[in-house]
């Protein structure tokens, strides 16, 4: 007679054996070439929050449909943390294949040897290159390292409902802006027309929007043709004194040195901020909190010049990528008409292709209609890369803060910042 | 084989194998996370990192010479000292006051006391980053505290934008986040003091203050010494809370040594220089603890 105990033990052992065998077969299946392995391309991006995760997922799935053997994995990090995240990944040798990149970051990554030159690839893909907007190519020392995914310029966006309610027209000059702010001010309710973003939590925004944008309008330049700072000019002093006059005349929200971009999005969504000096992504960002808000850009105006800052955000290819060819195909997909035309409308951003620039909706969309004029204005200045840009921006921002805190004169603040910039830039020459 | 077995048997007799198996992983983890990096930064501090070739070049003491000549470094040291020193004082004052309060017999019931203790522990459940975000809202120009200061003092205080106030604002947040930890340690210490000592002193005619200064404080001194060391070291290397709130501004009035290290190491990728900063911090904190211990031991012998 077979004992019950031994039969249960036998079944148990046989079961374990079956599971192990099954696992072994499954494990061997791909390595024996029985399963088709997909190529993985990693894309680091921050646009989930600004444009909606479903749109980013659509971009990925539309590429995967055309390339069934490719799996695109995204690494989403909110923009304020993206630089640090990328730096850690690149230092660890695990950089994404395709990287969302800013002009003020890419030299730090280029120094690590992580950013691939794109000229050879562009030369082979003439049609693709020809369709890119002229301003899309960002390089360093004669080599193209970054392509703008979208170009943009910064100007005043206004809440059309608030302006209609008050019977106001959007500002048409820097002096008119003061007049409009005086009309928008409601001191009894603690409401103002504009907030200034002078918090050190984002020194890039202080420099690009609060300083560089009016600097161009007032006839100044950030850098000369040799790449050295010249912002400590009369135009630079005028910029600082202009914003100071708004503070002194109590025309803006108090606490400028603590105000951040996130706060301003919330204020605009709540109807407390009728004017915002920012880029076109503001529409998609604010509409996530308030889908009913209607925003539009003020028409561009001319002071000493009619120029603005021609900026953008871009994409780079990693030298650490094991699948550079596939990664490049994915990059090209991002600029394809299919993606660029759709995303320009969804995100209200001028994607940097000639097809988008020529599209009728670019002149009809209240957010996009003036972008091309501002970017393409002969007096507009590009957003040029500078070594150790984050450090330089910080120093300039701190000196600007010192002026607003009454610790330095405008000229001294800009001279001190320029001296530091010169020293750092010289080291890289 | 028999030799092997006898060796294993002798080993088992001498050492508790199970205990070693339990303690082994944490020791390996400590080695990998703390000891190994400490060992590697020392040689790195005598080298310069070349990002293009991802290699190090020996430069001798050049990094330390640069470090000691760097005004920003000394500014960050000074700020960190002030921040850490006053944070320790704030923690001790708050923790003592609340621990004494919780240790009294004035509570109507143990349930009320426990409820109060739970409420006092509340700040500790927040991570430093969450604290920074929460207090950032309170300190905001349109936040509760700004409104309160406007109503009470008829002037708006720039908690994070006024260079005279910003450091104290972040110090307060750090104090608020960590005082429960020290309060619990002190409370444990107070509750472990033998009650008969107080009874004897009462019989001898000592009042409450005399009991506190002659019984409580001396017995609690070793615990306080430990708190000062842990708190000072922990606060000296704070990064996340202050970075999220101010990023070292306004005008670098909240610029800590950890920011200097972060900027040199991860933002500008001067790894050799950052290693020199790390070595300085490690040596300084070790020296601080050593001097403190020596002074305490000398005093306790006297």
Descriptive account of the structure:
The complex is a heterodimer of chains A (429) and B (302). Chain A is of the alpha/beta class. Helices cover 51% and strands 13% of the residues of chain A. In chain A, the strands form 2 sheets. In chain A, strands 1, 2, 3, 4, 5, 9 and 10 form a 7-stranded mixed beta sheet that branches. In chain A, a hairpin with a 2-residue loop joins strand 4 (137-140) and strand 5 (143-152). In chain A, helix 10 packs across helix 11 and helix 12 (261-269) crosses helix 13 (282-289). The longest helix of chain A has 28 residues, at 4-31. The termini of chain A are far apart. The mean pLDDT of chain A is 91. Chain B contains 13 helices and 2 strands. At the A-B interface, helix 4 and helix 19 of A face helix 12 of B.
User: Shape of chain A from CA axes?
Assistant: globular
Topology of chain B as a string of helices (H) and strands (E): HHEEHHHHHHHHHHH
**Largest beta-sheet details of chain B:** 2 strands, antiparallel
Going by CATH, what is the homologous superfamily of the largest domain in chain A?
Periplasmic binding protein-like II
In total, the number of strands of chain B is: 2
> How many whole angstroms does the radius of gyration of chain B measure?
25 Å
Total domains of chain B, how many?
Answer: 2
At CATH level 3, the topology of the largest domain in chain A is D-Maltodextrin-Binding Protein, domain 2
User: pLDDT average of chain B, as an integer?
Assistant: 89
Strand coverage percent of chain A: 5-15%
Provide the spatial order of strands within the biggest beta sheet of chain B.
1-2
Let me know the number of strands of chain A: 10
Assembly type: heterodimer
**SS-based class of chain B:** mainly alpha
